[in-house]
Amino acid sequence: MVPDLVIISKQAFAKLTPEQQKALVEAGHEAEAKQREYWNAFVGKTVEELKTHNVKFNEVDVAPFVQAVQPVWEEYKAKFGTELLDLIIAANK
Fold this sequence. Notes:
Elements: H1 10-15, H2 18-51, H3 63-80, H4 82-91
Helix pairs in contact: 3-4
């Protein structure tokens, strides 16, 4: 995924009215969904184009990798708490 960010300082955000804050947050979520949609379509089209040029793609089973990093996740949970890791996991869905 290519990250496209909407960034605003806490001070600038605090100067907005509650309605403006809500609108900005909602627009950010809508933009995120659209960006993912466009990106996924682009990737799909690109993969199909590359296959016409005999490019081969390997499908990788990520389960062994997920299992291999579990001890690291547990270490981070103990050190930093679960909130940050939960946010990271949620962002990848």
